[in-house]
Design brief:
50% of the residues lie in helices and 18% in strands. With 377 residues, it is α/β, with parallel strands linked by helices.
């Protein structure tokens, strides 16, 4: 893994050398050491470090806060303040420059390292969010859909990202300000919150990008000959392994298996979402049944669970992007899985239906034509 390069902005030479020594011992690389806000902007532009460690009180015409604001606006680099000035007025000014952390002098090496790593994680998450939102905007502009619907999707995406980002930020700030006084167990609890929220963001990013590609037609539809029986058995084995011993997936085949000419990638998204949801919304120790039935000109996939079910008044909205039933509680999800399923079914020219009773489980039935393999020129 490449080293993380840090720009040190500190006007006390002895202090700057000490900080550089500590950072190098922690495994970081020093991009440059400068003593003024003007030099900080110039050096950041030249070296583009991974992070700027900025003293607030600097000699020269501009202080660390003004330099940090300029660096963030021009270069979008993360800035962490290193200062002995923690009065309310200074902190209020510092907030305007959107720093990703504070370390108060004197500091401990571990405190410095944790603040830097959290700042880099938050910065990476923000960049990924910006990229995901930009991709969504581009996909929406290219899609021939109602402009009001596009705006709604973007708003929903931003809303879904806000929760994990808030958890990451609040947990990081709590660690930053109170970590030294906490037990290792309590610190670990907040670290787990950060990791869990990061995992949620990654899943949301994947779902948003997949949905965007499918919705905008950027996933090429290509039928190939698929051994459906083996394909489904391998998928069941993978999902059962990830679900753990508390769950069981009963897989069966009806009729005479025959080649089906389907898009294998879309088929994977379709069945993976249905089976994963069936496991997720089933009680511990629940049984999921997966039946594949071959007919003369089509193949039927049926996934049933005995989980929380879906209220009748919500069933007509199941395939809307970002929609989640009111009874899901704290069960994690993005509200995009079934939207991806529906688009995958539609692209194949198939059909999907649902039968559900709240508290007694749900059954999804998908019908896909066997199709013919596409001819290649």
């Amino acid at each position: 893994m490449s080293e993380i390069r840090i720009l040190i902005v500190e006007d006390e030479a002895i202090v700057a050398d000490d900080i550089a020594y500590r950072l190098e011992n922690l495994g970081y690389e020093i991009a440059d050491i400068v003593a003024s806000g003007e030099e900080a902007i110039e050096s950041a532009t030249d070296y583009l470090p991974d992070l700027v460690l900025m003293d607030i009180m600097l000699q020269g015409e501009i202080d660390g806060i003004e330099a940090a604001r300029t660096i963030r606006e021009r270069l979008e680099l993360p800035v962490v303040y290193l200062t002995a000035n923690a009065d309310r007025a200074t902190l209020e000014r510092a907030k305007v420059s959107v720093p990703l952390g504070y370390v108060l002098k004197p500091f401990k090496d571990r405190e410095l390292q944790v603040t830097i790593e959290i700042a880099l994680t938050r910065h990476h998450a923000e960049r990924e969010l910006q990229q995901a939102l930009e991709n969504t905007r581009q996909q929406q502009r290219a899609a021939e859909e109602n402009s009001d619907l596009k705006t709604q999707y973007l708003s929903m995406t931003s809303h879904e990202f806000r929760t994990p980002l808030t958890v990451i930020q609040s947990s990081a700030e709590m660690l930053e300000h109170f970590g030294d006084a906490w037990s290792d167990e309590k610190k670990q609890k907040y670290i787990q919150r950060i990791l869990s929220s990061t995992a949620s963001m990654n899943q949301l990013l994947e779902d948003v990008l997949t949905f965007g590609r499918v919705e905008s037609g950027k996933v090429p539809f290509q039928r190939t000959s698929v051994d459906v029986e083996t394909f489904c058995r391998d998928l069941v084995d993978a999902i059962a392994f990830g679900a753990g011993q508390g769950y069981s997936i009963e897989y069966s085949v009806r009729g005479t298996p025959q080649p089906a000419h389907l898009d294998e990638k879309l088929l994977w998204h379709l069945l993976n979402n249905l089976l994963s949801n069936a496991v997720k919304y089933s009680p511990d120790g629940g049984v999921v049944t997966f039946t594949v039935s071959f007919e003369s000109d089509r193949v039927c996939f049926q996934v049933s669970d005995s989980g929380i079910g879906i209220a009748p008044e919500e069933q007509h909205r199941l395939f809307e992007p970002f929609h989640r039933a009111k009874n899901v509680g704290k069960i994690p999800g993005t509200g995009l899985g079934l939207a991806i399923v529906k688009r995958s079914v539609d692209i194949h020219g198939g059909s999907i239906s649902v039968s559900s009773q709240e508290g007694k489980g749900t059954t999804f039935t998908v019908m896909l034509p066997l199709g013919e393999e596409e001819k290649r020129g």
